Amino acid sequence: MKYVVNARSKKAEIDKNIYGHFAEHLGRCIYEGIYVGENSEIENTDGIRNDVLDALRKMKIPVLRWPGGCFADEYHWKDGIGPKENRKKMINTHWGGVVEDNSFGTHEFLRLCELLSCEPYIAGNVGSGTVQEMSEWMEYMTFSGVSPMSALRSENGREDAWKIPYFGIGNENWGCGGNMRPEYYADLFRHFGTYVRNYGDNKVMKIACGPNSDDYHWTDTLMKQAKNQMDGLTLHYYTLPTGKWDNKGDATGFTEEEYFATLKKTYYMEELLQKHSAIMDFYDPEKKVALIVDEWGTWYNVEKGTNPGFLYQQNTMRDAMIAAINLNLFHKHADRVKMANIAQMVNVLQAVILTEGKEMLLTPTYHVFEMFAKNQSSQLLESHLFGEFIGTGEQQIPSVSESAALDQDGNIILNLCNTDPHLAKELDVELLGFEVGEVQATYISGDISAHNTFAQKELIKKQEFSDYTKTNNGLLLKLPPCSVIAVVVKTK
Ligand code: AHR
Questions:
Q1: CB of residue 24 inside a 6 A radius of ligand 1
Q2: pLDDT confidence of residue 58
Q3: Which atom of ligand 1 lies nearest, measured to the CA of 311?
Q4: Is 74 a pocket residue for ligand 1 (Cβ < 6 Å)?
């Protein structure tokens, strides 16, 4: 297969935030997965488990969305500040009806972001909150002068204001966030957004709730009614193998047919990005409003024997393919897509990390994020693959997913994924306008349903990739079956 990359043709900056994550008060994501409390036997820093912190740091997480999700529109931030023993306990109605003791709140979340050196993205409550509540949250977090909220913050042990660069005004307000019509939500967005203030030098991006997958009317209405008030519009799309919510398909033990059907559903993201971008282009040709895919990933039936409200699922090489395909699609649409947040970071849906008590493992999806991290803030390059399609019946997909970028040191990065379960693919890479020097490459590969377990934590792990030779104008690569490969080509 011929693959041409033009090193002289830069298309757009790949925003680092495309590698963003999402952590909700859902199942074992926050509690146990991230936060175990200061008195836990699990080694921690201010209650946040050290093993998870170390893994996330290696992955270079740039931005983290919190506290939901559907949870966001039921969350009242004042319940989660002050002495822990005084914090209100509530029912997490959306997710398993369990008691939420609010021991992880604003201070703990922003401490987590500090420890990860990542930026916070807060999702505010429109569905069941008030304008005043939202306004005061921003004041509490970002105002450094004399005010009731900054005084409360100091009382709670934090003198300095934090920086909040991203604020979401509601979540899924077409569904769990209030079942609203877009016309109504657009007005609420303008109303609530007015009081999300910029204090001092904090410059917040105001992010509107966008469509549920292919709801183009929602995008059209929001852009028409509120584009001048917004900096970003979200998009949510999950990959369900069957496309049905009552039986989504299992995370493991699936057939090859289901594998191709799932990947085909992931490729639907391309159509969504194209069509929503086209609507946005009509209203906003200068691309001032970012498209923010702040929930994406796979959603399977929960693992047998686990709480159905906890959305705990395994993560296989199929998920690695899906992560690579989506990230490549986001790269290709980097002119409009400025942030994406995989759902969710630990123990929920397409997680990069799974925990069981004090044990932790990295999923195949983790390795894709870690290998592709070099794309953060790189320049997308023009690239073309003279490829082929594979699959079963109508479930035909490109056999290789690709994107190429120029990193900040002038190296070419090739992001490749061979989705063929059985056959290696030879790629004849031509790098136009580039003299090939040293090459470094890593990969993961395995059976389509291969995954890491607590009994075998490293069945899938990152390895050095050496199946390549240099040619006159590029490289000849042999991509193993069902693999994700990250290649860094230095110049001479
Ligand atoms: O990520 C799980 C849920 O999916 C989120 O809470 C909600 O926003 C979406 O429906």
A1: yes
A2: 97
A3: 2
A4: no
Residue 492 has pLDDT above 90, yes or no: no
Ligand 1 midpoint to CA 70 (Å): 6
Tens digits of per-residue pLDDT, 315-324? 999 999 999 9
* Mean per-residue pLDDT, 107-136: 98
Measured from the CB, is residue 69 less than 6 Å from ligand 1? yes
**Catalytic residue positions, numbered:** 172, 295
Q: Which residue has the tokens 């877009």?
A: 182
- If you take atom 7 of ligand 1, which residue's CA is the nearest one? 69
**Mean pLDDT of the residues in the chain:** 97
What is the residue with the minimal CA distance to atom 9 of ligand 1? 69
The predicted structure's pLDDT at residue 144: 96
Q: Which atom of ligand 1 is nearest to the CA of 177?
A: 8
Q: What is the number of the ligand 1 atom nearest to the C-alpha of 94? A: 6
**pLDDT band at residue 158 under the 50/70/90 scheme:** very high
Express as a percent the part of the chain with pLDDT over 70.
100
Residue 421 pLDDT exceeds 90: yes
